[in-house]
Write a structure and sequence with these properties.
two-stranded antiparallel sheet; alpha+beta; globular; 181 residues
Length: 181
């Protein structure tokens, strides 16, 4: 199995086979437009623009499971991201990343990575740990998605090679992308 075996929905409800991205390095992210991590859209857009011609793509999956911070329809979220953050990479329909309605792609991503904790150097680390521990006291011992802007790096063969929590410095994420390119 690889990410290429999955089909997802675009914001208009059309099926999109991830096989369309075969041979590209991917960064898959669950996002939210009203989150403390939302400014990451700007950095993600910069990273995408820098590497898109080298075989890199970001796949954005809005998710409203964390503090209801992705309100609106998929189309509304996509429009907001395109206008406010100049996002050009693919944005898909809102999905669930945890629970009984978890999107199959996210089940695969979680099954093939480990939660390694939050980056203690990030200014929001203490806040996110407090919030997440109230939701899931055993959060350190499972692979559930903890919050918005969790990212998964996928190599050109469709294998998940790394998981980045929202507190991971995007410069470090960029370095890992560069290694795969």
């Amino acid at each position: 199995m690889s990410v290429y075996d999955y089909t997802v929905k675009d914001t208009k409800g059309n099926d999109v086979s991830l096989n369309e991205y075969k041979g590209r390095v991917l960064l898959i992210v669950n996002s939210a437009t009203e989150c403390g991590f939302t400014p990451q859209y700007n950095e993600l857009t910069q990273i995408y623009n820098e590497f898109k011609d080298d075989g890199f793509t970001i796949l954005d999956f809005p998710c409203n499971q964390f503090g209801n911070q992705a309100p609106g329809t998929g189309e509304e979220i996509e429009q907001s991201c395109r206008v406010e953050f100049l996002v050009q990479y693919p944005i898909f329909e809102k999905i669930e990343v945890n629970g009984e309605n978890t999107d199959a792609l996210y089940t695969y991503l979680k099954d093939n990575t480990q939660f390694e904790g939050f980056d203690e150097d990030h200014e929001l680390s203490g806040v996110i740990e407090e919030v997440v521990s109230q939701i899931d006291p055993d959060y350190m011992n499972n692979n559930e998605i903890k919050w918005n802007f969790t990212k998964f790096l996928v190599d050109r063969d469709g294998n998940v090679v790394k998981r980045f929590e929202p507190t991971r410095d995007l410069k470090k994420v960029k370095d890992e992308i560069r290694k795969l390119l």
